[in-house]
Design brief:
Length: about 425
């Protein structure tokens, strides 16, 4: 069985200060530092993901495995799954994260039947329970992989075959059961193939109704077993499908309203998916708050030049500072966190590359959080924003938005006015942001 020698490290990452040049220790992430009344660790709530870190073999569309991890080689699948768990929990210790996350298919092998797969998942769940009890790490969220197996090539909840729909229900029920057993704080629905490749064979209305029913049953079951965390949907516009029904925050908001799910279902947002939808990460986060749907974040990044999920480790301090600024305005995470849905590059084949990537990205997030705190404390962005909309804060204008005036009344007022445009001050605000990051 694999143990600590896989990484060749004994000492866990620690805060070493800005003067440190050691890539295995933090320069900015001081987990006990207080930021706006909370410890930095409690603000950021980092989670290491199981799939990219321990299941992705280092392939791409033009080439196969490059990592050659020992638990990915031939042998008894359950023995390999336990070996993988040993290495995973060693990484959790080395990077000192408070949480992890998993897909069912990535932690345990598929059985010959659905029940066989469930038995394997429960066995690994028992192992996780033991390892979690012996460490500090907790479960941020679990999910079911309803996209990799060929049975899901036409979707899971939106599949034209009701037998596939039923199989997916069994898989999700089992994944939520294990998540609940491990005291997971959220459950994620990741609809990798809930969309279409061609409209020639697609009934969108029918498929949306199927997806709405699937989620409604999941919410009902969540309440039945007493799972208190939210169900999280992760918006993604395309890839591998041409169009996916959870395209972006706005699309999911409309969907959840239609099927009366806004109370129990929130969003798990990702920068890479925002880019694919033609948005910024900041846009998706701000809109999620505006719609009352903010839940959690996958903290990775995409490449602006590539049209697919590159899932690189997040390193852009300015981009993250804007996101954290919005979060701090609203009090930060409740059950959510920063999940490293990120993978090292396929040329980064040394085991320690995985540790270094996490440490570097955690440091970048810490720098961004501190910049956001300074901006919020100084009112750097909030002051100009409040001033821009100040006219709406008068009693007379609030009455318009409160519904106390008719169109005729407001139009009559408009006839006596000659409003003049005012500068949006975009360049000034961009220069202001640069002072903090």
């Amino acid at each position: 069985m694999a143990t600590a020698p896989f990484f060749g490290l004994d000492e866990a990452a620690r805060f070493a200060g800005e003067g440190s040049s050691d890539p295995l220790h933090f320069r900015f992430y001081d987990k006990n530092r207080e930021v706006m009344g909370r410890r930095m660790e409690d603000h950021l709530r980092f989670a290491a993901c199981y799939w990219h870190s321990f299941t992705w073999p280092g392939g791409d569309p033009f080439g196969g495995e490059t990592f050659l991890r020992p638990w990915m080689q031939a042998g008894d699948p359950m023995t390999r799954a336990r070996e993988k768990a040993d290495v995973a929990f060693e990484l959790f210790r080395l990077i000192d994260v408070p949480f992890f996350s998993f897909h069912d298919a990535d932690v345990s092998p598929e059985g010959e039947t659905l029940q066989g797969s469930i038995d394997n998942l429960n066995a690994i769940g028992e192992l996780f329970e033991e390892k979690m009890a012996a460490s500090k790490v907790k479960l941020l969220w679990g999910t079911a992989n309803l996209f990799s197996h060929r049975r899901y090539m036409a979707g899971a909840a939106t599949n034209p075959d009701p037998d596939v729909f039923a199989y997916a229900c069994g898989q999700v029920k089992a994944a939520l059961d294990v998540t609940h057993r491990l005291k997971g704080e959220n459950y994620v629905c990741w609809g990798g193939r809930e969309g279409y490749e061609t409209l020639l064979n697609t009934d969108m209305g029918r498929e949306l109704d199927q997806l709405g029913r699937f989620l409604s049953m999941l919410v009902d079951y969540k309440h039945k077993i007493g799972f208190e965390g939210p169900i999280l949907i992760e918006p993604k516009p395309r890839e591998p499908s041409k169009h996916q029904y959870d395209f972006d925050t706005a699309t999911v908001f409309g969907f959840l309203q239609k099927y009366d799910l806004t109370n129990d279902v929130k969003l798990n947002l990702e920068q890479n998916h925002a880019i694919l939808a033609g948005h910024s990460f900041d846009h998706e986060v701000k809109l999620a708050y505006a719609c009352g749907l903010f839940g959690s974040l996958d903290i990775n990044r995409g490449d602006d030049l590539l049209g697919w999920d590159t899932d690189q480790f997040a390193m852009d301090v300015k981009e993250m500072a804007l996101v954290f600024h919005e979060m701090l305005k609203h009090g930060g995470f409740s059950t959510g966190g920063l999940n490293f849905d990120a993978k090292i590059r396929r040329q980064s084949i040394d085991p320690q590359d995985l540790v270094i990537a996490h440490v570097a990205s955690m440091d970048a997030c810490a720098r961004a959080l501190l910049a956001a705190e300074r901006m919020l404390t100084d009112g750097a962005l909030e002051g100009p924003l409040k001033a821009r909309y100040a006219g709406w804060d008068t009693a007379e204008n609030r009455a318009i938005l409160d519904g106390r005036h008719t169109l005729e009344e407001v139009a009559a007022r408009g006839r006596s006015l000659q409003p003049q445009p005012r500068s949006g001050r975009q360049e000034y605000l961009e220069s202001l942001l640069n002072r903090y990051v």
